[in-house]
Amino acid sequence: MNAYNCIADDVKLGKNVRLSNFINLYGCEVGDDTKIGAFVEIQKNASVGKCCKISSHTFICEGVVIEDNVFIGHGVTFINDSYPRAATREGALQTEADWKVEPTVIKKGASIGSGATILSNTNIGENAIVGAGSVVTKDVPPNSIVAGNPAKILRSIEQTTEGNSVHA
User: Fold this and answer.
1) Cβ(148)–Cβ(137) under 8 Å?
2) Do residues 46 and 60 touch, judged by C-beta distance below 8 A?
3) How many CA atoms within 13 Å lie on the side-chain side of 13?
4) If you placed Cys at 29, which of 12, 23, 57, 91 could pair as Cys (CB 3.0 to 4.6 Å)?
5) What is the rounded distance in angstroms from the CA atom of residue 17 to the CA atom of residue 141?
């Protein structure tokens, strides 16, 4: 750790986690052998699995679960509230008691391209690929490639016996 990182005492870091400068972690969990890039924030009640790469300028909010072997590109943003508001109907600043976290799950082996936005209440399937700049508004099936705004399925990914992907 260094003076350029803000890592709360309640963060659970696995073995061999590599942390860049200028990160903010609190109340989250990061698995073994994961690399976290610069200017990343991971909020409470979020988790990142083993052997993941979280690239710089990414925001992982409360309620996001990232499973093992996931790649997150630069500047990816996760959303955990479909209808965010700053104030209550009475005009007071909202607190945690005024809203409910909406979950997002990124399954094992998925890859999310730089600049993508992932809306809440979505699941990105195992080994799926989300194209750079995409806006994911609904579930992404396993072994599929999606892109666009909103993200649409472009094609599926077939696995060879060696484990390498072949685009169909």
Assistant:
1) no
2) yes
3) 16
4) 12
5) 29
What's the one-letter identity of residue 14?
A: G
CB atoms within 10 A of CB 82: 10
Spatial contact of 129 and 146, defined as CB atoms under 8 Å apart:
yes
Average pLDDT over residues 143-147: 97
Q: Tell me how long the chain is.
A: 168
pLDDT given at position 145:
97
Say what the pLDDT of residue 164 is: 55
What's the pTM value of the predicted model, to 2 decimals?
0.91
Q: 87-99 burial string, b = 16+ CB within 10 Å, else e?
A: eeeeeeeeeeeee
HSE-up of residue 43 (Cα within 13 Å, Cβ side): 13
pLDDT digits (tens, 9 = 90+) for 64-121: 999 999 999 999 999 999 999 999 999 999 998 888 999 999 999 999 999 999 999 9
Helices (H) and strands (E) in the chain, counts: 0, 22
At 9, the amino acid letter reads D
pLDDT of 163: 53
Q: Is the peptide bond before 150 cis (omega within 30 degrees of 0)?
A: yes
